[in-house]
Amino acid sequence: MKVAIVGAGGVGGYFGGRLAQAGEDVVFIARGEHLRAMKRNGLRGDSINGDFRVDPVMATDAPSTVGEVDYILVAVKAWQLPNAIETMRPMVGEKTSIVPLLNGVEAPEQLSEAFGDERVLGGLCSLVTMVAAPGHISHDGAHPMISFGERNHRRSERAERLQKAFSRTEGVQAVIPADIHVAMWKKFLLIASWSGAGAVTRAPIGVIRTLPETRNLLEQAMEEIHGLARARNVAMEREAIGQAMAFLDALPYESSASMQRDILAGRRSELDTQNGAVVRLGKEAAIATPVNGMIYSCLLPQEMQARKQQTFDAG
């Protein structure tokens, strides 16, 4: 089974590294110093579930040299997806299956427009990782879980084959949910609320979940996303909010979301596809989203500065 990892950062590096460690034929599409470090020293993963090292590692910035693959795991930032689609084209054949692991709920449709519905599964993942240094992935929180499935709710051989491959890895839980749309919206409810609250408060999750005021902010943001999901005919039960809060309560005190880290570092972020998407989709469905709207509005000036669309002194 040949697997391409498009986006070899914290998420792609971790899951791709575990598959390679288990003996699968994995190639990482990467660039810059991260790529050079992997070619020079292999891929290192420090994990609370056990460290790993892949050396030598198959990695390239030229997808045209890879050929067609069986699976593509897409793990780029949501705003990088249009470029990633062009990057992927040389690796997509008639039997290629594409699994998006991006934050948000819109990636499957974007990929389907480019490659056809028949090639795209729904997908998501859950873990706290980051690139600690070029060629070095750090997994600091949450049990690694990857979930994928057919968007028509049917069981399929290709999903089960990928699940079987992950079953041979160390410490990765691979799930084929009964309804991948519900699973994706549950992840969206959690990550958009956490990312937005974390970026606005500039605080780790240990602080946000402890203060009654910021805990309430989290829960209100989740309530809006739950209502939006139901309005879009996603059969997500209200218990998803309690499950998301329980997940956040179990994280290490200093944990932060990737969008939060990007915003605090002045980098371009996934604001438009997280809290911005809640606002945009809410307007389409005539669902009020004032809390997510406030979060989006407060973070937008810094996001525009990161994109060089505005220039100002943040003091």
3D architecture notes:
The structure is a single chain. The longest helix is centred in the middle third of the chain and has 22 residues, at 180-201. The N and C termini lie far apart (52 Å). The protein is of the alpha/beta class. Strand 9, helix 5 and strand 10 form a beta-alpha-beta unit. The mean pLDDT is 95. The relative contact order is 0.12. It contains twelve helices and ten strands. The protein folds into two domains: 2-178, NAD(P)-binding Rossmann-like Domain (Rossmann fold), CATH 3.40.50; 181-306, Orthogonal Bundle (N-(1-d-carboxylethyl)-l-norvaline Dehydrogenase, domain 2). It is globular.
Could you write a compact summary of the structure shown?
By secondary structure, the protein is α/β, with parallel strands linked by helices.
Record keyword descriptors for this entry.
N-(1-d-carboxylethyl)-l-norvaline Dehydrogenase, domain 2; 2 domains; 315 residues; Rossmann fold; five-stranded parallel sheet
